[in-house]
Fold each of these.
Amino acid sequence: MKVTDILRVKGNTLFTVQPDQTLAEAVQTMAELDIGSLVVMEHGDVVGMLTFREVIAAVVAGGGSVGTRLVRSVMDDAPLTCTPETGVDEVRRMMLQRHARYMPVLDRRTLMGVISFYDVAKTVVDAQDFENRMLKAYIRDWPEKDSPAS
């Protein structure tokens, strides 16, 4: 299974922010849309990722407020990325290794979507459930052993 399979099910809705927007605007967008991340785009290119992890760190650093900080000042400017053709097992390994909860999917420089660790876990569980159902159906239809010839 590949990332493209996850995107096909998930859809292609993308939420982005510009690096020179205020962090307060970005946080408001995240809250209104009930999302945990925004891809930071500048001139059509992915330049970073803003997740609730960076937001929380900025709030703590600001004494409980984001103040007038810009997205650029707190974003992850080297986010982990993958391609639509990356295998789900590889994505899972990458996300676990870097403790990443969100990963932009790029086809060359074009943003195709964002997948979350939840999306990857759901895909793996759904695939295992399907395989289990197929195995159970196969076992139920197992041909009975021929009785020995007398």
Amino acid sequence: MDAALTQLSADRGFGSLSLREVAREAGIAPTSFYRHFAELDELGLALVDEGGVALRQLMRQARKRIARDGGSAISTSVETFMEYLGNNANLFRLMLRERTGVSTTFRTAVKAEIDHFVTELADDLRRIAREQNTPLSDARLVAEAMVTLVFNQGAEALDATPEECEQLKSKLKTELRMILVGSQTLAKCQ
């Protein structure tokens, strides 16, 4: 899996990898590849799964930090996400590309990972709204908007300079707050 990731870049997607290249990078014979995966696409799906799981685990840790230490949930979450991007750029690029790629199997896998993020965020939003006795219009819809926004800004952050990344983080925090406040205002009007 690491061998495949090292070959991915801003200019090279998963679809351009060959089994021989991945095996060579991993230091194994091409036939040994089949001890681990039935085909190259199975490797790609495992990478998508790893990317989603790693990000969800980081976000869970961020939520625990927020619960323990306080602070802004949005700010901590954005900082955690950007840290993930810095450490997992190729994994995130894979998810971005395959989200709209030609393979139905990959699109479905990425959609499932995004749905996991949305579901967990919607649950958190509902819990926080109850704890703070704050109305929220539609937690699932708010979570979908937030996750979509974060993914899109993440795509921009991949090629950004450190200064541009700081600006993107600030902008993203503001946009996420706008979505949340808008949902709370809409709930009060209903």
Amino acid sequence: MLHTINKSPFEKNSLQTCLRVAPDKSNILLIEDGVYAALKNTDFEKNILEGQKIHKFYVLEPDLKARGLDIKSLIPNIDIIDYKGFVKLTVENSRVQNWL
């Protein structure tokens, strides 16, 4: 299952809710302001590191760039994908859950 999170974790609790209910081995894609959850040295780094034990995380590169974020500032082991990768994830997963 693919989960997309588009809200900043500093604004909404979408990330925490997703991590609490997502089935094991889910794919979690951070898009739009959700990309802020992928940054090192934030209050949410622990959530992502714990989540990586059972989920695969992705971040949409155009959304990182649009916010002036550097790839070097990301938590390790988060795959950076482009729009083609987003489409591929959507096709590979039978269901998509958007967390608003």
